[in-house]
Amino acid sequence: MLIRENISLLPYNTFRMDAKAKIFAEYSSVEELRALLEQYKGDPLLHIGAGSNLLFTKDFDGVILHSAMRRARCVSEDADYVWIEAENGLVLDELIAQLCDMGISGLENLSYIPGEVGASAVQNVGAYGVEAKDVIESVRAVSIADGTERIFSNAECQYGYRDSIFKNELRGKYIITHVVYRLNKHFEPKLNYGDLSSEVGSDPTPMSVREAVIRIRQQKLPEVSELGSAGSFFKNPIVPREVYEAISAQYEKVPHYEQEGGIKIPAAWLIEQCGWKGKMMGGAQCYEKQPLVLVNRNNATPEDIVNLAAAICKDVQDKFGITISPEVNYI
Ligand SMILES: Cc1cc2nc3c(=O)[nH]c(=O)nc-3n(C[C@H](O)[C@H](O)[C@H](O)COP(=O)(O)OP(=O)(O)OC[C@H]3O[C@@H](n4cnc5c(N)ncnc54)[C@H](O)[C@@H]3O)c2cc1C
Q: Which of 11, 210, 226, 241 has the highest CB neighbour number within 10 Å of its CB?
């Protein structure tokens, strides 16, 4: 167990905000996590992964928890599937690389998404037509209130688009410690999204899909090591058909995807139509290659990011009557 006091959170968030935390505590087992929960009972707590979906807007006057549990193991298998249980602190992309290497598929489209296994099951991360919920069998979590363990089935996680029960009624109540994935032994590539199919080429394997996803992402998204960001800052709105039809009557070729409950219009397109692509506010910038991403271009303060996000939301609302909301967690 590692406990440090009054530390800078700069290395712990990909936006590179220099907020401070009163305590930073890292555990290496569920028993250590329980001991920390007991020790800091009543203090404000925040469990983080790689901090790639967080915006620290101020110092955190409490305890930041982080997991150093990073193992994965096979817990079951049959002729078609293998069940892998991964610990919360394992870097998701490292797990995916290992699985692709073994020819085990299901997660390859999520390659190169920053972050750790625990948070990916909170966020229901998604990319290239696949979401974590498609392969999550169950999630093991520890109650912050009393340290008891609970197993949530996939259905009990109430997954939705970048959403789960852990972001809603159980927000701040459980820490996910393990995630069990049901993965395929027989490869069924999912290549219907965007330019993935042409990038992969013929005879796809889990590894060739992973490599193609990484190539595409490297062209479009900022490298975490080079430019601060939290990936897509906003969620893509799902609007009623009438709203989409009213917009497409005014604009040529409005990109859209049929969804349950409405039509998804890429927030990036809405933001670009409002003229924000590449624009800066203070040190924050609407990324020139992908306007859904806000970046820390030049020593941005949290206010710069918050102000830029608010200005973009307002313009999208005024121009299209559509509310876009942040995917990023403001802390
Ligand atoms: C360049 C870039 C590209 C990205 N691309 C994508 C993408 O394609 N698709 C996508 O979905 N996301 C994407 N993201 C967002 C981000 O990678 C994901 O949301 C990721 O799951 C966050 O993981 P993390 O470990 O960094 O979590 P953090 O940012 O540290 O935490 C996220 C949330 O989860 C909570 N949390 C963390 N760990 C636990 C736990 N063990 N138990 C309970 N709660 C916990 C935190 O309190 C917080 O509310 C991108 C981000 C960046 C920077």
A: 210
Whether the pLDDT of residue 201 is over 90: the answer is no
**Global pTM value:** 0.94
Residue 78's pLDDT is 97
Give whole-number Cα distances, 132 to 10, 107, 276, in Å: 28, 7, 30
pLDDT band of residue 309 (cuts 50, 70, 90) is very high
127 lines ligand 1 (CB under 6 A): yes
Distance (Å) from CA 328 to ligand 1 centroid: 8
115 lines ligand 1 (CB under 6 A): yes
Tokens encoding 114: 């920053």
Q: What is the pLDDT of residue 194?
A: 79
* Centroid of ligand 1 to alpha carbon of 49 (angstroms): 7
Fold classification of 228-330 is 3.90.78
**Residue having the nearest C-alpha atom to atom 3 of ligand 1:** 231
Residue 35: exposed, middle, or buried by beta-carbon count in 10 A (0-12, 13-18, 19+)?
middle
For residue 2, list its beta bridge partners: 26
Assess contact for 106 and 134: CB atoms under 8 A: yes
At residue 73, φ and ψ (nearest 5 deg) are: -145, 155
More confident residue, 231 or 193: 231
Classify residue 136 as left (phi > 0), alpha (psi -120 to 50) or beta.
Answer: beta
CATH of domain 2-67: 3.30.43.10
Sequence spans of domains, the chain: 2-67, 72-220, 228-330
| Residues tagged active-site | 162, 232, 327
- Is the Cβ–Cβ distance between 284 and 304 less than 8 Å? yes
pLDDT > 90? residue 259: no
CATH topology of domain 72-220: 3.30.465
